[in-house]
Amino acid sequence: MDKNRFFNGWSMAVFLLALIIIAGGIVIFIDTGRSPGIEISVSPAKIIEGKIYISGEVNNPGLYPVFAGDTLGDIVRAAGGLKNGADASMIELSVAPPDDKGTPQKINLNRAEVWLLEALPGVGETKAKAIIDYRAQHGFFHDTEELLSVPGFSDTIYDRVKDFITVYE
Fold first, then answer.
1. Cβ of 72: how many Cβ atoms within 10 Å?
2. pTM, whole model, 2 decimals?
3. What are the C-alpha distances in Å from 13 to residues 1, 7, 115, 131?
4. How far, in whole angstroms, is CA 9 from its chain's centroid?
């Protein structure tokens, strides 16, 4: 009879231990099952306030959109950052007038680099270099028609590019 009591005592202890383990697992499962839901928030889209032309010591001069809260640093980053060894005081900004027509950005003959001039219709590497050389010898262009004074430019080529170019210092 002592063996029966021994097994009954151990049986009861094992049964209670199993019951505690099962109850603990249920409690843990219920607590982890009630995790807070995932909240997804999307920041509102930036509203374009206008456009600004940046040139000078930046890698990619051009016309860029300006959003509410943008800083000069944001605009410089949009223009590809400063050139190596650049003098930050040589950055030039020009505010573009409002444009509701969605006209394309024009290339400034007085500031554009060779690679950008090459993108103009009918202008290849040779003509782009000729523009740069003319600008170096004669200074800034005062009118887009002055492009006709550059060697290699004819009325036909000027007619192709006139809607894509501008001049201002």
1. 12
2. 0.43
3. 18, 10, 86, 97
4. 74
